[in-house]
Amino acid sequence: MKLDTAPPRGMKDLLPAEVDLRDRATATILTTYKRYGFRRIETPALENLKLLLGSGGGENEKLIYKILKRGAKLDAATTQLEDDLADLGLRFDLTVPLTRYYAHNRAALPDPFKAIQIGPVWRAERPQKGRFRQFTQCDIDILGVASEIAEIELILATSEALIGLELERPRIRVNDRRILTAMATQCGFDAARHGEFFITLDKLDKIGREEVARELREGGHDEAAVAKLFALFPGPGDPSQAALERLALIIPATAEAVEGLRTILTTVEREAGGRFSVGFDPTLVRGMGYYTGPIFEAAYGDYGSSIAGGGRYDRMVGRLIGQDVPACGFSIGFERVVSILEERSGVAGPERDRVAFLFGRDDLLSEVASAAGRLRSRDRVVSLTLKRKNLAKQLDDLMGEGFGSYAVFRAGQAPPDVKPLARRAASGGGADA
Questions:
Q1: How is 336-374 classified by DSSP, letter by letter?
Q2: CB 17 within 8 A of CB 402
Q3: Do residues 332 and 386 both lie within one domain?
Q4: Of 96, 103, 214, 286, which is most buried by a Cβ count within 10 Å?
Q5: CATH number for the domain that contains residue 169
Q6: Per-residue pLDDT tens for 270-322?
Q7: Can you say how many angstroms the Cα of residue 405 is from the centroid of all Cα atoms in its chain?
Q8: Which one, of 22, 1, 12, lies nearest residue 332 by Cα?
Q9: How many CA within 13 A on the CB side of residue 35?
Q10: Do residues 138 and 223 both lie within one domain?
Q11: Is 182:256 a contact under the CB 8 Å cutoff?
Q12: Model pTM?
């Protein structure tokens, strides 16, 4: 029986050129984040299912890949309810595992703790263009800092990383979950249904005001509350600081959150120096239920979706250790960023020259390896490649594979003569036998 060799639906194989681009993007991001004092950590792909469920992960909790119990535990569980058959799940983001990691290791971690995580996550959702069941997230988080300096540093570091990837002039939108809650209360939405209200409002930038209003009404929310809601939003072109001040006057309960956002906006805007923009957006929601304060997203050009998002989640660690710990994070949508770089055929940072070192079947392999080693000692990437009869055609093929230079092994030659592939291909001269 012939087996299907395609990867599982919603997942993909990565070819060498794709991995090269991803590696360079990762290196650029890591270099930037480390300059801001963040340190890389790793957490397991699997987490306790009880930890993942009820974590405030919103709709993502419905998309968890559950892992069956094993061996005797599975045999014992088969007579029980279906929900008892699984005890582990694949992580759906990196924030929930981070809180478990911090709770378990906090005695050995610095205070404050500034973490980088880059790794795959899994969500059992319907695959579509740009949306996979396995994808990479790239997070930075600060735990132990209640001050707005945490949000400021996260926004500055993430913006610098995006600019380093040649995604010029990203746009940062900020809001605060406390402002959203105050708006919902002011308008008269049922407090017990605020979560449902936020999920619908989060669709605003995708389906528009009329559709959001229709969904709210059809969901049983009060008609008068829906009308009051949209009256609170600024009109097109209204300055974000003015919109923030206006909101503080209309809803005094937002005063503390408004003051915090004012500090974030003023400081970040000054540091941006025109290289990126930042502004208040009262319609920004973010889908996760664990956010407790400021939230933010990054957008780029006319790309339809955000390319980064995050916020403050001060109560997540507390549910594990019984004591709240201030926490805040920003996550780059790595797959979306890479797709933009691929569409632009962009290069995320400089790549070292790749040299194809050609040798013949009769060449002494010990001498070939020694000569290649001397080339590598000059910080070159050197790949040993058997020379073909049609050298000109081989050089063209090597260019297509991303090699920038080549050298031909000759016994007794030290060092080998490295030549650029582009110039030889342009001149039509490849025959160097």
A1: HHHHHHHHTT--SS--PPEEEEEE-TTS-HHHHHHHHHH
A2: yes
A3: no
A4: 96
A5: 3.30.930.10
A6: 999 999 999 998 889 887 778 999 999 999 988 878 999 999 999 999 999 99
A7: 34
A8: 22
A9: 11
A10: yes
A11: no
A12: 0.84
